[in-house]
Amino acid sequence: MESVPASIETYKTLKPSKTLRYHHNDPITSLDFDDTGAYAVTAGTDESIQLYSAHKGTHQRSSYSKKYGAHLARFTHNSMSIVYASTKEDDTIRYLSLHDNSYIRYFRGHKDKVHALNVSPISDVLLSASMDHTVRLWDLRSPHCQGVLNLVSPNLIAFDPRGLCFGVANTSAQDLSLYSVSAWGSDPFATFALPAPPGDGWASVEFSNDGKYILLATYGEQHHVIDAFTGNLTHKLVGHHPLRRDQDNMRGGSTHTAFSVDGRTVFGCSRDGKIIVWDLQDRVDERGRLYPSKALNCAPNAASPQILGVNPASMQLATADKELTFWLPEKDVAEPPKEA
C-alpha cells in the first residue's frame, strides 16, 4: 500500500477495498490501529481478538478470551501487544502478547465494567474509565494503579496528542475537564461546559492530532467539535442518520466518528450505510451547522458500519459491524472488495 498525500479530495475518493469476516458473524465491538499503521485489531462478542495486516488487508491470527470476554482491544506501543477490558467474570484489564498469546500483566482495581480504555500516545501510560464512576491511571510496567479519580458518574476519556493532559467528559454534569498527567490528583486545570447531547447521549471523545479540536460524538443528529483551548463550540456536524445506541451498550468506549490524521476532516458512520465526510474548513451556517462534503458508499449488500478507525500512517479507514472492511483511495482499489 503506497503512501498517499493527505488531502480532503483524496479522502472523498475512499472506497471499500477488502472485507474480512473472522468473528463468526457476531458483532465487532472495538477496532484499533497500531502506531505504525501496519496492523489493526478487533474484539467482538464472540470473545475473540483478531489481528490483521492493514497493509495487505489480510488476517494474521486469532486469540480467544472465552472465560473473561474481550472488549476495547488497544495496541500498546509494541505492535504485538495489546490491552483489553473484560466483559464477564471480573473487571480486570488484561495485557496480552499477541506474539505467543500469553498474558504479560493484569491491572486490577475497577469494581464494575470498564467502558473506556485509552493508551497514551507517547508513553506506557494507560487510562481506564469504569461504570464504578472512577478513572484510573496505570503504568504498563506495573500491576499497581498509579492514581484514581472518584467521580459522580461514568465518564468518557481521551489523551491529548502530546500525552501531557487528558480529558474527562462527564455525561451527567455535561462538562469536559482537562487534567495534567504529571499532576495527577490535582484539580482539573480547565473545565468546559458542554452543549446538551442530542439523542441518546455522548458516545466518545477524541482530540485532533494537531491539538486544536475536541470531537464529541453523540447518538443524535449532531456531533460537536469544540475548541480545545477555549471550549467554545466550533462546529455542529449534521447531515448523517444517527446510529442507535445498542441496548446493552456493548460497543461503549468505541467510536463511530474519527478525525483524519491532519485534523481537517471528520469521518462518521451513518445508519443508512454510508460513511460521512465533514471538512472542518468548509463554512458553517448561521446556526453553526456543518454539512457533509461527501457521503461514501459502503460495499453492496454490506451492513451499516457501527464503528470506525483511521490509520495513523496512511490514507486508510477501517469500519466494522460483524465484519471488518478496509477502505483505500479509489486509485488503490483495482477491483471490488473481496471477502474472507
How many strand units? 30
> How would a crystallographer describe the biggest sheet?
5 strands, mixed
Which percent range fits the helix content? under 10%
User: What name goes with the CATH superfamily of the domain at 1-21 and 206-340?
Assistant: YVTN repeat-like/Quinoprotein amine dehydrogenase
> Per CATH, what is the topology of the domain at 1-21 and 206-340?
Methylamine Dehydrogenase, Chain H
> Which percent band covers the strand fraction?
over 45%
Low-confidence stretches: none
The total of helices stands at 1
Characterise the protein shown here.
The protein is an all-beta fold. The protein has a domain of 156 residues: Methylamine Dehydrogenase, Chain H (7 Propeller), CATH 2.130.10.10. Helix content is 1%, strand content 46%. The chain has one helix and 30 strands. The strands form seven sheets. The protein has a five-stranded mixed β-sheet, with no helix packed on it. A hairpin with a 5-residue loop joins strand 12 and strand 13. The longest helix has 4 residues. The radius of gyration is 19 Å and the shape is globular. It holds the Pfam family WD40. GO terms for molecular function: chromatin binding; histone H3K4 methyltransferase activity.
